[in-house]
Sequence to fold (359 residues):
Amino acid sequence: MNMVLKKQADFWQSKIQNQSSRRNSSWLLGCAALILLGALGSAQVAAQGCDVYVPTHKSNSVAVVRTFGGPTPGGTVTGVIPVGIQPLSAAISPDKAFVYVTNSGWMFGSNSVSVIDTTTYNVVATIPVGNFPIGVAFTPNGAFAYVVNDGSNNVSVIDTATRSVAATIGVGTNPWGVAITPDGALAYVTNQASNSVSVINTASNSVVTTVPAGVNPTGVSITPNGAFAYVANFSSDTISVISTASNAVVATIADGVRPHAIAFTPEGATAYVANDGSNDVSVINTATNTLTATIPVGNDPRGVAVTPMGRYVYVGNRFSDTLSIIDTATNSVVATVQGVSVFPEAVVINDHVSSGGCG
Fold:
């Protein structure tokens, strides 16, 4: 560039040389502009994206998928974090600093929760809990994590400051999922073999009531306004809608085959249900509690999560070893992430890894 500037200053050279110099200067300036535009484009791409944590229970690990939004949404597996034996579920702390992963152990007896630091992508603690832990959920203030133990019919309450079990609560038979109301007052636990939902008062850590549900309830999710708990009844192909005010079922929605997990859009207008028997996702209008669409995904979808701004839905397909990305504007799959193996289960989103989030 200095040579170009020198040539431009050497006005006593011939006209042809000056013309050549001007052409060289224009070419260099054009290249600089292209480099600058490329850098800006790269910065925009880098400013978008989320880390999606997916327990893969046959590989005893958690896959980390870096996703990105429009105009061409997609993602790629960027890391694999070893955890305990056969992890089944996970939850992220409200401050997005840690992911808690339940290690079911099956017959090998892992019976623990792995704590992953989302900055270093390393397991920083392993917390012993009950037998065959599955569901896990944080209180809104992040002070406690409630872990459902299917094999011991109870819930372990973890103090996240000490990373130790502070209380154990007996519930129904073979509990699976847990969800906590936005005010942190109540925890709803699905009991598969009891066909019921235990309602826990988190202040006293005691069961205050038990609500009958459908057959073999698994997944449970609370609407963002805290008014309702939606329960996936795996063996009756229905969704039970429980009023958190009355703790009674106020609606039952016919769904796909073997509904397993539920997630809501941020405003709560729509619920997305992963149906592992029909290889699709149901779209439910929560105002009318009616099924409005069915979206084909991969084989045996087990986990579902909606991005914080509601633009996309991520679905873990267990037998396909893939992650489907659904655009909520069109309710269609717009990308499929390969290599999320082996046997992806739950889906947990960390949108704090970039300034642009993931939609």
Observations:
- The chain has two domains: 2-43, 68-350.
- The first strand starts at residue 50 and ends at 56.
- Helices lie at 2-9, 15-46.
